[in-house]
Design brief:
11 helices; binds magnesium ion; binds adenosine-5'-triphosphate; two-stranded parallel sheet; alpha/beta; 8 strands
Length: 270
């Protein structure tokens, strides 16, 4: 554990770091935010109501705005948005050195928190084509796969889901693909990313990706996005895995590192 902490310290010194402490997902109250959908109309988008209890179990803590720990994600969100605005960035890739660090949980919490921030319209895309889990975390039933869309069998509008949160749409996936890096590096994919990010002036698109060191999907996809967030699971990656990941990301616009599953308790304020 000490070794990892030292490695993270080194990462922090080398790069400007956006950090978040442990997210342990408690808080029983359910926030029913089923009000209007802000300035955007989702007439063609399926709207579903989320199950607060399930979200709590899945550590999607920001859904319950009464949960004091949701502040952790609000701080992270505001730091990220500020850096993105300064640089004119609109698309974020979320990845990690190895599997299970908490990319999907962080992506979903961040997307909800961002959608609640002023006028941003947020799309959360499940682009971990090897292990799609965004829908599972949100409790969504998914009718189509991302590949159905890229094969022209379904329109994007039929794929998108509004989870009852204003200004948030989710692009879920219900099927894993073996040969996903071919799609991730394709011109079709490049065009898709350009298209979704330019649909609205104040849109942010978050792509939940696979780990950097476990497949080539993330590396193949990264040229398409404006910036990258690295999630490190406390005690889950070796020093050399973190260093290798930082080396692979050295030519990218780096938002920072989230240290997830930290032992530190969130103390809150007031
Ligand atoms: N802060 C946390 N504290 C405790 N458990 C967590 C935390 N964040 C995530 N988890 C749990 O760790 C597991 C992995 O999380 P998640 O699926 O988000 O990781 P991932 O990086 O997306 O994994 P994969 O590489 O398999 O896609 C899940 O069971 C999740 O609930
Ligand atoms: Mg995941």
């Amino acid at each position: 554990m000490e070794r990892i902490k030292q490695a993270i310290e080194k990462v922090k010194q080398n790069k400007k770091t956006v950090s978040s402490s442990g997210v342990k997902g408690n808080g029983p109250a359910v926030n029913k935010s089923g009000s209007g959908l802000g300035e955007f109309s989702y007439v063609n988008t399926k709207t579903v109501e989320l199950d607060g209890k399930l979200l709590e179990q899945n550590r999607i803590i920001v859904y319950n705005q009464q949960d004091i720990k949701s502040t952790i994600f609000d701080i992270l969100r505001t730091k990220i948005i500020s850096k993105m605005q300064q640089n004119g960035w609109k698309t974020i890739a979320v990845t990690s050195p190895t599997q299970g660090c908490g990319k999907t949980v962080i992506s979903v919490n961040l997307a909800i928190s961002m959608a609640r921030y002023n006028d941003f319209s947020v799309m959360l895309a499940d682009f971990d084509l090897k292990k799609p889990e965004v829908a599972k975390n949100l409790g969504l039933t998914v009718d189509h796969s991302i590949m159905d869309y890229f094969n022209g069998q379904v329109e994007l509008e039929e794929m998108l889901v509004n989870p009852g949160i204003p200004r948030l749409v989710v692009l879920p996936n219900n099927k894993a693909y073996k040969d996903s890096s071919t799609l991730m590096s394709s011109n079709k994919m490049k065009g898709f990313v350009e298209d979704v990010k330019d649909r609205y002036a104040s849109r942010i698109v978050i792509f939940d990706l696979p780990p950097l060191l476990a497949t080539d999907d993330a590396l193949a996809f990264l040229p398409n996005v404006d910036c990258v967030l690295l999630v490190v699971g406390n005690g889950m990656c070796s020093k050399s895995e973190i260093e290798e990941s930082m080396r692979l990301l050295s030519s990218k616009n780096f938002l920072g590192t989230v240290l997830n599953k930290s032992d530190d308790e969130w103390r809150g304020y007031a």
